[in-house]
Amino acid sequence: MNSNNIVPRTPYIVHGNYICRMKVGILGGGQLGRMLLQAAANYTVETFVLENDDSCPAAHLCNHFIKGDIRDFDTVYNFGKQVDALTIEIESVNTDALEKLEAEGIKIYPRPSVIKTIKNKILQKQFYKQNEIPTSAFVITNNKEDLKEQQSFLPAVHKIGEGGYDGKGVQLLKESGDLQNGFDAPAVLEKMVNIIKEIAVIVAVNDKKEIAIYPPTEMFFDKRLNLLDFQLSPAQLSEKIFWKTEAITLKLVKAFDSPGIFAVELFVDDKDDVLVNEVAPRVHNSGHHTIEAQYCSQYDMLWRVMLGYPLGNTDPILPSAIVNIIGENGFSGKAVYEGLDEVLKMDNAFVHLYGKEETRAGRKMGHVTVLSAKREDLIYFCNRIKQSLKVISE
Ligand code: ADP
Prior knowledge:
By secondary structure, the chain is α+β, with helices and mostly antiparallel strands. It is built from 11 helices and 23 strands. Helix content is 26%, strand content 31%. The radius of gyration is 21 Å and the shape is globular. Residues 136, 157, 159, 164-167, 169-170, 190, 192-193, 195, 198, 221, 265, 277-278 line the site of adenosine-5'-diphosphate (ADP).
């Protein structure tokens, strides 16, 4: 093919307006990026992914894969210069580069200042306090010496300011003897909440500041692994708690004052108070079910936001549950999915494997979404899937 055969970029007609095929970059190439790219295939958008690992889950679904470190200023800046808009699938990105790109006119979802606040748990908590968003009481500790002064604040939860994820930067400190297990780095010490339910709400905000909010999802954790075990949506909440949750979520995203998609994790405590635990300013695993269970998935919604299309319908088509597919203890190496046929034969189950070649104990390898009108059925199927599907190694 000679260069004359290359078709120039043509404008596309959308709702009577001419728009160009937009170039959108995603920082990070994990499973969230993968699912975002699956939704991108429905639109006229040219996708770019920046990620260090070229065998990552998103590598083969984008138009352009660029191998590089999302934490490095020059790498992120150069990646961002070639696109019209950028989004993230993980918060540990170079926000200085994103701020420079934003100043030069690249649209960033969410705004870099919001990522900066959220990626540091200290700044995040201070933001809630300043904006009168209900959250657990807290003090800041800079090192272990500071922490030792806080005996009277126990029982509490110590959370490292930066770098923690999936419970790895979180320590429960019940009594003074536990203080030695705390972090010797800037951290937040939060009062232990008597949690009755953990819920999450996905909410989207577009450039016109219009908001679309998904029904809350109820999370159940595997305490041993500190990983999400299964989740049900919509969450079973009293009307009062439902409205409180929605009001807090809306107040929070208005305070962020940024377009994008936000996953708000909240606690309902034993006094029926609703408290914000943390926020992810991106598509999130608490919204995986929206792919099959909602009219508009969180992934489709983010494309609508970035491409300037109307927001989608967040109503559930049917109630849903999600079971994570997690690497079995005692196995590591090339992944084998034992019992997959049995799950694939279920009429109401949707299997998502993230394409990770290697399994390890506790590694998230995929998820299964189940749909059913009845909550009892959802729980029954979650348990059946957990019993039948095991990730082992060759
Ligand atoms: P990560 O971002 O690493 O997932 P989280 O802040 O979500 O960390 O905390 C992990 C888990 O620890 C939560 O899902 C919750 O079960 C528990 N937890 C966190 N903060 C508190 C708190 N203030 N009181 C009681 N339990 C908490």
